[in-house]
Specification:
It contains 6 helices and 7 strands, in the order αβαββββααββαα. Helix content is 34%, strand content 18%.
């Protein structure tokens, strides 16, 4: 949904939270899972506020949305080994699956598919625009063009005696009705996010 690049995660958290809110405008609140960094809590509490109109004159107060949630999964380590995970609800109710396994898996996919992320490589992304384009292209392919086996849907009447219809993550959440092709992607007129 959103990503940013910079020197530290604490510096990037506000930008990622802001972009996520901007790109999901009009939808229900987002469930956030993070590590124990305070930057995410601060950013979520600041960005997910809406004006609460009371009919009185003047600027309405900003109130935190009731449907936004932030749960922290903090790894406890002894000698470099993870020995436990402490789950802390920080904003709202705790998230049902408060672990970052899906994010870690996506990070692995990005490292596998983008040579600029590997060590000792000749495929550097020397400019932020190059890096941004690489990540966008890889994420689009992962979410819109690559069917995931775990998301397949059992459907009757498919040709060739097949029982399952392949689905991408974009299809699973209702953003697409079919698996996209490269030709469709390259010829589609899309909204370009403004860099500020």
């Amino acid at each position: 949904m959103a990503w940013a690049f910079g020197p530290t995660e604490d510096a990037l958290a506000p930008e990622v939270v802001r972009l996520s809110r901007e790109r999901t405008r009009g939808q229900a609140g987002v469930c956030w899972v993070s590590d124990g960094r305070k930057a995410y809590e601060k950013a979520v509490r600041r960005v997910y506020r809406d004006p609460q109109r009371s009919g009185k004159r003047g600027r309405p107060p900003l109130v935190l949305r009731q449907d936004v949630r932030l749960t922290q999964a903090v790894k406890q380590r002894v000698g470099g080994r993870v020995v436990g995970v402490e789950v802390r609800p920080v904003v709202g109710e705790p998230v049902a699956c408060p672990y970052c396994v899906h994010v870690e898996r996506l990070n692995g996919v990005l490292r596998d598919r983008l040579n600029a992320l590997t060590r000792k490589t000749h495929a550097f992304a020397k400019q932020p625009t190059t890096w941004d384009a690489l990540v966008r292209l890889c994420l689009f392919e992962h979410n819109w063009m690559r069917p995931h086996r775990a998301l397949r849907e059992r459907v009757g009447g498919l040709p060739g005696g097949r029982r399952y219809r392949p689905r991408t993550p974009a299809m699973a959440i209702g953003l697409a009705e079919h698996v996209w092709s490269w030709e469709e992607f390259l010829s589609f007129r899309h909204y370009q996010y403004k860099r500020e």
